[in-house]
Specification:
13 helices; globular
């Protein structure tokens, strides 16, 4: 019985987390910028893929407000897995290994099982959020929601849909907070070490709980930069790779 207990102890020790100061997210951004600068071609390749995906989302959901809002917010939910290639670039860069776009794809293939499991979890959450979004629209937004123009007018200018906005933000925010807590460092951890999805999610939740202030700031930075990326689209080519590389350094800081 001693040997299994020792294995569990070592497994648990790999998931220990550190406390960081409140300004640490800006250090992660600076280090992420350095990674992107040193691996510019590979990083921008992912940025172009993100921009193409964002353009597709906007084009497909235009004119369908409930799909539009669910798709934009859903992009935040699946971001941790979408950025796995960027984590691999940063991991290789830290280790002095080749870090081209092709090299990062090879790295992804070695962690395909764990990424598939975590991706399936996020896909389940995303599907559930899309259904909840449709229910919220049907319950609290009885007006004609056939176009984005009238939707944004009702939401941001007239105040006619205040109850809809409140419920959408409360429920969507709760789901986003849960996903952020479970995914903030879990995917980089899966890319970096031999561990399982549950252990990585537990470590991520503990890292967020122990460092609530810094991680709340980090979540706000992510929301702001991704929003700017969607608003400009060209900015997505730079901002999303920056966030991906910075998230790697968040993981390295937070998990021993």
């Amino acid at each position: 019985m001693d040997k299994p207990h020792g294995v569990l102890d070592r497994h648990f020790q790999r998931a220990q987390v550190r406390r960081v100061d409140s300004a640490r997210p800006f250090v992660w951004l600076r280090r992420g910028w350095a990674d992107m600068r040193d691996n510019l071609a590979a990083s921008l390749s992912y940025g172009l893929l993100f921009a193409a995906a964002g353009s597709f989302i906007l084009g497909y959901a235009t004119g369908l407000p409930h799909l539009f809002t669910a798709a934009i917010s859903g992009f935040f939910l699946v971001g941790p897995v979408a950025a796995a290639g960027l984590y691999e670039i940063s991991r290789r860069h830290d280790n002095g290994e080749p870090a081209s776009f092709i090299d990062s794809l090879r790295g992804l293939s070695t962690h395909a099982d764990h990424l598939l499991y975590f991706g399936a979890f996020l896909a389940f959450v995303l599907l559930g959020w899309e259904r909840l979004s449709a229910i919220l629209f049907a319950s609290f937004y009885p007006e004609d929601a056939s176009g984005l123009g009238s939707f944004f007018l009702d939401v941001f200018l007239t105040g006619a849909s205040a109850s809809f906005v409140v419920w959408y933000l409360v429920i969507g925010g709760a789901i986003a907070a849960l996903v952020f807590a479970l995914s903030a460092v879990s995917v980089p951890m899966l890319m970096d070490r031999d561990t399982d999805v549950v252990t990585a999610m537990v470590a991520s939740a503990r890292a967020v709980g122990i460092n609530f202030g810094p991680m709340a700031l980090w979540a706000l930075i992510i929301v702001v930069l991704i929003t700017i990326g969607f608003a400009t689209m060209a900015g997505m080519i730079l901002l999303l790779p920056l966030l991906g590389h910075a998230s790697w350094h968040a993981y390295k800081d937070l998990v021993e």
